[in-house]
Design goal:
The protein is 35% helix and 9% strand. It is built from 7 helices and 6 strands, in the order αβααββββαααβα.
């Protein structure tokens, strides 16, 4: 339920650490240009929740355990997507396009609305240096309520990814 003084979702303070309107209260501009930058050349990890694994396994029409064994590994106890063998590009990136776009992990779905990117204008500009879709001339204005909802979803997914545990022994079906 929106807070009456800010017209922003309840729980914003827990998410952003402030009950004041965010610096992006008027919204931010973003469109995916399919440049592939967020999926390539990074040494980062795509953390997976159980829901991500189930969605991707269904996309490939395989059991979750089989998907996990083929496309993931553990990093500090968390399940992450593999990179391509010859690079640090996402295993599902081909010709700068996501081959699992409709089933892509939540972490990918919520980019660039991660808290580290929307913390302040400087963080947003740093992200823009990496992502050409941020503040792109043809990008639509995304309302603050949607930005906060996506940031919350990313935080929930991150918490869920911590809890994935070892499911690589899941039975085949």
């Amino acid at each position: 339920m929106p807070s009456p003084e800010t017209n922003l979702p309840a729980g914003q303070a827990a998410l952003t650490g402030s009950s004041r309107e965010p610096w992006f209260a008027a919204g931010l501009r973003f469109t995916c240009t399919q440049c592939g930058n967020c999926c390539s050349g990074s040494s980062g990890s795509v953390y997976l929740s159980q829901a991500d694994i189930a969605r991707l396994a269904a996309h490939f029409e395989v059991a979750p355990g089989r998907f996990v064994r083929r496309y993931t590994h553990l990093v500090r106890g968390r399940r992450v997507l593999n990179d391509q063998a010859s690079s640090s590009d996402c295993v599902f990136l081909r010709d700068n396009l996501c081959t699992v776009y409709e089933a892509r992990p939540t972490q990918c779905r919520t980019y660039p609305w991660w808290l580290r990117n929307i913390r302040d204008p400087e963080s947003w500009q740093a992200a823009a240096a990496f992502c050409e879709g941020i503040d792109h001339p043809t990008a639509p204005l995304i309302p603050a309520t949607e930005i906060l909802a996506q940031a919350r979803l990313d935080q929930q997914n991150e918490s869920a990814a911590i809890q994935t545990g070892r499911i690589d022994a899941a039975p085949e079906r």
